[in-house]
Every structure is written in structure tokens, then in C-alpha cells.
Amino acid sequence: MLGILSANENRSGSPGNYYSYELDVPFSSAVDAMADVSTLNSEVKIIRKIASINNVA
């Protein structure tokens, strides 16, 4: 089964664990899927606004 998000643990010598995350699906597909969840409407608006500001598709 394909995932939506990959987490990579980065151990840079500092205490604790640091993870970086990467989408395994196109950004617009992930946001569209989130938009189908009615409780995430305000979050989707914020994500789309930030994406627009940063020229992310």
C-alpha cells in the first residue's frame, strides 16, 4: 500500500530525534483530499494561502 507521507529520521548529533517529512503524492492531491474532510476547512484555506505565497502548486 502506498503512503501519503514519508518520515525520515535525521540524527545530526543533537539530543533527541529530528524528522523531515516528504509527500509521496502531488501537493494538490493531498490538499484536495484534506478538503473533503469538513472539519479541516479552515486549515485547507490556510495551507492554500501559504502555498500560493510560496508559489507551490
UniProtKB/TrEMBL annotation:
Superkingdom of the source species: Archaea
Gene Ontology biological process terms from the UniProt entry: cell division
Entry keywords, A to Z: Cell cycle, Cell division
Protein name from the UniProt record: Cell division control protein 6
Record organism: Halohasta litchfieldiae
